[in-house]
């Protein structure tokens, strides 16, 4: 075995990376740990995101690859995988390298020739595993420092609440000004006006609401001109409703209060969610239906992975990851058609959709195509209406229906059943046009109350996946 603790110390970019890697040495956080028996190891590590990071290491030359967006090389996940291997206290299952490992092996360069010389000062200051125990003991023996840190966090929360309240007041006045000027020409001034308000909301620590406002101009220009005033009215009404709900949060039911705080930009950490005894958890086999990837105005990539629990009573969930643009090679970990054997923990909401993987027991390709039977479109819309009544700022809602046909009328497309017709989003029309020739089909997509964005269809001609 070529890996050793001394080599890991030499590879670590700094002491903080070693400290972070040590926290990842628990096998419970690694749903996959495998080797090929010839010096190649790989694993999946459940990090702070919704989907696990994938790591591969070649033992001979300590080559590594991780899908996390860290700018440290090697990252803490790669160091932790090497550390567990070097320690020899964790079993690695024998297996065949999956496709993502083979893809990396095919692209990677060979081992570096030679190593740069390290001077004696750098050698003395290099990261040390032995020093970690001393650091941990010092932190544990300073309760006064822990108390000061907690008091500072409380002051920060109080200050942020004040800033958010001021930001909501500024937004209310801005919306009133827009209504006074009229929404007929709002689309023409939206780019500048929305950018100004979004910046004000960012300064007010209301990042979630800021993103909602900043994305509005692009959403409007994706619509036909005659539909923009109504879409603007709906978007501004939802933003106003979120603001008013936040100011009255103490009178809201617990789940709705938690939801509106998340809409405003308050985050719930993965650790807090998994430790919450009241959090809704569901175990089972989950099918990956679709993946979406978009860049937000705050320069974060928002990656959505939509899941459906396999069984007679399907349940939908979405895993959401945020990755800095240009933050390194990273992306969606799961592909449509894969099956996850996992327990999901849902973020508190009256309409629970967003989730984290609480326990992951493995991933495998599905043996058969997605099945959607006896789910009429009117029933799906009825479920959306119930969800909207529970969460008035609902946004995109998963809709799965059988016995649907896609029909065209001019350049517009519609999802049609015997009892209801839904317009298909104009941005999806070109990609979905072949479905007009497919006859009756099963359809999965996202419905926002105005248009349906199709993401997956099962037809008599085969499976269609949105590009």
TrEMBL record:
The keyword Zinc-finger applies. The keyword Metal-binding applies. Keywords: Metal-binding, Zinc, Zinc-finger. One of its GO terms (molecular function) is zinc ion binding. PROSITE patterns: ZF_SWIM (PS50966). It holds the Pfam family SWIM. Residues 53-86 form the SWIM-type domain. This is SWIM-type domain-containing protein. It comes from Novosphingobium sediminis.
């Amino acid at each position: 075995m070529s890996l050793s603790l001394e080599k890991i110390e030499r590879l670590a970019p700094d002491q903080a990376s070693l400290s972070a890697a040590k926290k990842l040495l628990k096998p419970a956080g690694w749903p996959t740990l495998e080797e090929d028996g010839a010096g190649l190891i790989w694993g999946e590590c459940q990090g702070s995101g919704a989907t696990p990071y994938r790591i591969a290491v070649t033992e001979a030359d300590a080559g590594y690859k991780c899908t996390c967006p860290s700018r440290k090389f090697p990252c803490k996940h790669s160091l932790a995988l090497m550390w567990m291997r070097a320690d020899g206290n964790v079993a690695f299952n024998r297996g065949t390298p999956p496709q993502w490992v083979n893809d990396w092996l095919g692209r990677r360069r060979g081992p570096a020739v030679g190593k740069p010389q390290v001077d004696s000062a750098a050698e003395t200051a290099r990261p040390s595993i032995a020093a970690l125990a001393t650091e941990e003991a010092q932190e544990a023996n300073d309760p006064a420092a822990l108390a000061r840190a907690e008091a500072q966090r409380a002051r920060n929360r109080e200050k942020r609440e004040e800033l958010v309240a001021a930001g909501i007041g500024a937004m209310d006045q801005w919306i009133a000004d827009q209504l006074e000027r009229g929404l007929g020409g709002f689309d023409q001034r939206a780019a500048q006006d929305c950018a100004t308000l979004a910046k004000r909301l960012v300064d007010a620590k209301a990042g979630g609401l800021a993103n909602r406002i900043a994305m509005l101009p692009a959403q409007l220009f994706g619509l036909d001109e005659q539909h923009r005033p109504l879409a603007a009215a709906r978007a501004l009404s939802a933003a106003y409703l979120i603001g008013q709900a936040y100011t009255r949060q103490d009178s809201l039911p617990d789940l709705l209060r938690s939801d509106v705080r998340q809409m405003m930009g308050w985050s719930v950490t993965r650790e807090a969610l998994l430790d919450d005894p009241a959090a809704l958890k569901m175990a089972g086999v989950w099918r990956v239906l679709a993946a979406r990837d978009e860049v937000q105005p705050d320069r974060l990539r928002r990656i959505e992975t939509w899941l459906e629990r396999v069984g007679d009573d399907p349940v939908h969930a979405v895993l959401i990851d945020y990755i800095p643009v240009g933050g390194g090679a990273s992306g969606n970990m799961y592909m449509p058609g894969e099956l996850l054997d996992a327990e999901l923990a849902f973020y508190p909401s009256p309409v629970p959709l967003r989730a984290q993987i609480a326990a992951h027991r493995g991933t495998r390709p599905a043996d058969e195509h997605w099945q959607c039977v006896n789910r009429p479109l009117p029933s799906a819309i009825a479920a959306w209406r119930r969800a909207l009544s529970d969460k008035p700022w609902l946004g995109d809602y998963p809709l799965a229906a059988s016995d649907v046909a896609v029909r065209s009328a001019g350049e517009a497309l519609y999802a049609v059943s015997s009892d209801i017709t839904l317009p298909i989003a104009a941005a999806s029309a070109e990609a979905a046009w072949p479905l007009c020739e497919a006859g009756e089909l099963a359809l999965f997509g996202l419905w926002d109350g105005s248009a349906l964005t199709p993401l997956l269809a099962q037809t008599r001609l085969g499976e269609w996946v949105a590009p």
